[in-house]
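Sequence, please.
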């Protein structure tokens, strides 16, 4: 907490009473409580200090910051005095204090017996806006962090109308092993052994499976692994030669992949639910086609093709029909384009492109075919969309080593996500399912 904030707290303190004995959820009769969220305007928010649950507050404050929907005012969570003031009707939150700090909203996290209450204050209106109770796992439980991330997403939804992306995870490759991390970069877990050689991880839509390429003795099969049990199966049609860049269809039934043989590299699909039905979608004829990515409605795919010379981004129907160029390019000014991924809202395809002697992240608007550059510093590649459709993770060497970074496509804010070095091929999950929010 800076000197100004601390002075304000000291000037306005009254008693160190618990947050549990605060205003009623409902405002006084005749007072209308409402929150107007204006896109493009970032309201300020503060996670209120309180007794216990410090790890919950820390995770939520970081999630709200990383959502890029708010300006988060940092507070020293040990300063719980002065949060309440006493009125004729009983203790109430010290609205004047937090309005002086410039906060629009406050989040209180309160232990109430076996459950945890999360309360949203509209500080401008001077009233409670929303409250939910949650049955959180113990902090040492494997599901604790994800449960808190789901609460963070709910808070974002209470204010903006759409949830955040905290309750999601990323896969990536380092030293031929596949690793998984939370959306905030914490809880790094290995999903494969140190002696395996794996590439190109991809999430199933429900987050229970991942597909990847498994290299053994010169061949590469596409495998599907259950992330709960560890059980693996081979995708039909990938038992021989080299098979890379798998991608699940939006309904999770089909895996598309690139199969490389004597005739070139082409895109195939297979039904992984019935373990059948291999279908070839492209015919190379001295060109390579790879890196398929489904549109969210499942009707189309973007992919990479060298049919015009250098690799560029194309689009086709999910059955292989109507193949055409998606991202415009100019030889000499525009280099190879690779690693497309369709956005969750269907509006854009992200990819990386060689330009001006470097490699940068771009978006192509699917409707207008206009191309927009997102990055300009360092070598950047392999973008992958967050479930909120506004953030992308990508690999960059701007800090010296290849690390994961995240960019907000709306504000342009960029932050570093990993600090372990030499990472590759990230894949961001959709929002991961869990218990229904709230217990009240």
């Amino acid at each position: 907490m800076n000197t100004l904030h601390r002075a304000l707290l000291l000037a306005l303190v009254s008693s160190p009473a618990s947050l549990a004995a605060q205003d009623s959820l409902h405002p006084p009769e005749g007072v209308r409580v409402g929150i107007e969220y204006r896109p493009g305007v970032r309201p300020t928010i503060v996670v209120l200090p309180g007794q216990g649950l410090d790890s919950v507050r820390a995770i939520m404050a970081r999630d709200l910051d990383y959502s890029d929907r708010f300006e988060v005012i940092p507070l020293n969570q040990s300063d719980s005095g002065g949060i309440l003031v006493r009125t004729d009707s009983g203790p109430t939150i010290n609205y004047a204090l937090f309005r002086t700090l410039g906060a629009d909203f406050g989040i209180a996290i309160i232990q109430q017996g076996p459950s945890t209450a999360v309360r949203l204050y509209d500080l401008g209106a001077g009233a409670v806006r929303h409250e939910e109770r949650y049955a959180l796992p113990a902090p040492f439980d494997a599901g604790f962090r994800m449960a808190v991330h789901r609460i963070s997403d709910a808070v974002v939804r209470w204010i903006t109308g759409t949830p955040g992306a905290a309750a999601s995870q990323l896969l990536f490759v380092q030293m031929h092993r596949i690793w998984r991390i939370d959306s905030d970069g914490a809880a790094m877990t290995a999903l494969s052994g140190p002696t395996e050689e794996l590439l190109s991880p991809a999430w199933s839509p429900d987050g229970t499976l991942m597909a990847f390429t498994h290299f053994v003795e010169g061949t590469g099969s596409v495998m599907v692994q259950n992330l709960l049990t560890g059980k693996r199966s081979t995708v039909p049609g990938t038992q021989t030669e080299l098979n890379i860049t798998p991608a699940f269809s939006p309904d999770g039934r089909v895996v598309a992949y690139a199969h490389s043989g004597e005739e070139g590299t082409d895109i195939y699909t297979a039904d992984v639910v019935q373990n059948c039905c291999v279908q070839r979608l492209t015919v190379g004829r001295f060109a390579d086609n790879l890196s398929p990515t489904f549109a969210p409605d499942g009707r189309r795919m973007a992919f990479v093709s060298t049919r015009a010379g250098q690799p560029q981004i194309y689009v086709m129907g999910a059955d292989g029909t109507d193949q055409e160029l998606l991202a415009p390019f100019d030889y000499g000014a525009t280099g190879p384009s690779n690693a497309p991924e369709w956005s969750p809202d269907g509006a854009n395809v992200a990819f990386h492109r060689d330009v001006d002697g470097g490699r940068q992240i771009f978006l192509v608007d699917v409707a207008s075919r206009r191309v927009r550059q997102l990055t300009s510093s360092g070598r950047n590649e392999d973008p992958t969309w967050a479930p909120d459709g506004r953030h992308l993770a990508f690999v960059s060497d701007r800090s010296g080593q290849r690390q994961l970074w995240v960019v907000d496509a709306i504000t342009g804010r960029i932050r570093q996500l990993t600090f372990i070095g030499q990472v590759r091929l990230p894949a961001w999950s959709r929002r991961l399912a869990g218990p229904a929010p709230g217990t009240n």
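The chain has two domains: 3-160, 169-428.
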